[in-house]
Amino acid sequence: MRIPTSSVSEDQESSEEQVSGAVYSEMHQMISSIYAELHFMFKQDYKYDQFLGPEGNVDVELINKSANKYSLRFPTAGWYLWSATGLGFMVRDAVTVTIAFGSWSQHLALDLQHHEQWLAAGPLFAVTAEPEEAVAEIHLPHFISLQGEVDVSWFLVAHFKDEGMVLERPCRVEPFYAVLENPSFSLMGILLRIARGTRLSIPITSNTLLYFHPHPEDIKFHLYLVPSDALLMKMIDDEEERFCGVRLQTSPSMQPLTFGAHYIVSNSAHLEIIPTELKLSYRSPGEIQPFSKFYAGQMKEPIQLEITDKRHGTLVWKTVVKPVDIQLGAASAPRTFSG
């Protein structure tokens, strides 16, 4: 993947002064197109140990596994993207960055979220930079679809500091990310604030994650419907892997789905699915994520899976799982069968 190579000089006051307006606009169009490509071509093997950069990949070091904390050094000016999470930086000069992950539920009470109509719209990152002034922009990922009634004025960046939560308006809101210029660093993430009493359907981008657990007599499947939060999907991957789950490659939903709506899971083989209904909600990485489960015996025939909107009855996602998919997946799976 090609990364824009336009850089930002430390000797100039702002990134806009470093290039003409036309070039600067073109660079951000390139960045937006790369984010879109990452969403629509989401891969299971995105590397957590590398950023994409203007001169190639930059290695990321895991410095604290229990705290999920990483460190890296951007060697030169330019734009850098952590494709595994959607977090991006525009830097003026070489800079050392540390990144850790946080949980909304530990900092924003559920009753407060409901009372104020606040919606966590992406992952939380605890970011530091040395020197701070070397960072011209930080791009924070979000999963809100900018369609219909969504107003970009609802987007806020929440900073969690010693004195509590501090809210800041982003300089720009793009599909898949929001931008802070000359940022201050903290535990931070995108929050959507909707006026109280407003009854709106919030469209979000989402992913359907399908795992099978190999067993010689009865293959088990787990299906998750979650917002397009790369960190959340990574945590589900890790949890499933602990129990020998193997993820099958599937496409995103056919259209943005509605936050808080209910969706029905069905299959062509009339296998019992428990539960058949999933609510599309956001739970922070590390929390228990809801999923549907079903068993397919030795699976001699293909199975078609579908997800439909419960309220409208419209098809929003489907896939076909063939026996060969299971055979190929099982060949790379651990030789231990899940219970």
Give a description of the structure.
By secondary structure, the protein is of the alpha+beta class. It has five helices and 25 strands. The protein has helices spanning about 15-20, 20-40, 110-115, 230-240, 325-330; strands at about 50-55, 55-60, 60-65, 70-75, 80, 85-90, 95-100, 120, 125-130, 135-140, 155-160, 165-170, 170-175, 175-180, 185-195, 205, 205-215, 220-225, 245-250, 255-260, 260-265, 275-280, 290-295, 305-310, 315-320. The strands form six sheets. Strands 3, 4, 7, 8, 9, 11, 12 and 15 form an eight-stranded antiparallel sheet that branches. It is globular and about 60 Å long.
Describe the secondary structure blueprint for this structure.
Layout (H helix, E strand, L loop, with lengths): L14 H4 L2 H20 L9 E4 L2 E4 L1 E4 L4 E6 L3 E5 L4 E5 L3 E8 L7 H7 L1 E3 L3 E7 L4 E7 L13 E7 L2 E5 L3 E3 L2 E5 L5 E7 L9 E2 L1 E8 L6 E8 L2 H13 L3 E3 L8 E2 L3 E6 L9 E3 L12 E4 L7 E7 L5 E7 L1 H9 L8
Antiparallel strand pairs: 1-2, 3-4, 4-7, 5-6, 6-10, 7-9, 8-15, 9-15, 10-14, 11-12, 11-15, 13-14, 16-20, 17-18, 17-19, 18-23, 21-22, 21-24, 24-25
Indicate the radius of gyration in whole angstroms: 21 Å
Please give the count of helices.
5
- Pattern of helices and strands: HHEEEEEEEHEEEEEEEEEEEHEEEEEEEH
What is the makeup of the main sheet? Answer: 8 strands, antiparallel
Residue fraction in strands = 35-45%
Distance between the termini: 40 Å
Shape annotation: globular
User: What is the number of strand segments?
Assistant: 25
Low-confidence stretches: 6-13, 334-339
Sheet/helix structural class: alpha+beta
- Helix content range of the residues, please? 10-25%
- Mean of residue pLDDT values: 84
